[in-house]
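ok, trying the design again with the full structure, not the truncated one.
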């Protein structure tokens, strides 16, 4: 762990280590002791921050969606302010999606969502927030769409984003 990473708050260090280890080894094949070593802390400190690995997965899902929505809002605001054209905005959006390399972890999290109802609900809630925000984003780009067209454009954008984000699997 780098000196900068070591200065992060405990929860952030745990999530950073969890993303790395869960992505490399899978959620179920990563032990709490491996996670503690990766976060450079004791297992007890992890359990003070999170009750279970399930809570860690939920925290990763929420943090990732919050980060993605903040990126979307920044792009949407640049569109509204006239800094970007609609085309440039969507090109940046798709480019950011391509640059992310979290395919293995994303699929492991999705699989856990099917096995674990609580994680599944967290994923569903986050996906709905993402869909709602994407719909607003598209409405900003083209306010003339009726509801049916807006839903179609939202579905198409979701398919493109999901496909681009997971193209290497």
């Amino acid at each position: 762990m780098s000196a900068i990473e070591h200065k992060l708050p405990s929860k952030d260090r745990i999530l950073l280590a969890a993303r790395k280890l869960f992505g490399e080894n899978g959620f179920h094949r990563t032990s709490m002791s491996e996670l503690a070593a990766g976060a450079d802390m004791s297992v007890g400190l992890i359990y003070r921050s999170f009750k279970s690995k399930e809570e860690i997965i939920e925290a990763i899902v929420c943090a990732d969606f919050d980060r993605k929505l903040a990126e979307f809002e920044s792009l949407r605001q640049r569109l509204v302010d006239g800094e970007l054209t609609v085309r440039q905005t969507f090109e940046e959006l798709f480019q950011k999606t391509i640059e992310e390399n979290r395919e293995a972890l994303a699929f492991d999290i999705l699989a856990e969502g099917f096995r674990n109802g609580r994680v599944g609900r967290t994923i569903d809630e986050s996906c709905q927030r993402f869909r709602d925000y994407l719909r607003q984003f598209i409405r900003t780009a083209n306010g003339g769409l009726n509801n049916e067209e807006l839903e179609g454009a939202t579905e198409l954008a979701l398919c493109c984003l999901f496909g681009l984000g997971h193209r290497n699997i």
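Keeping the full-length input from now on. The chain has two domains: 3-49, 53-165.
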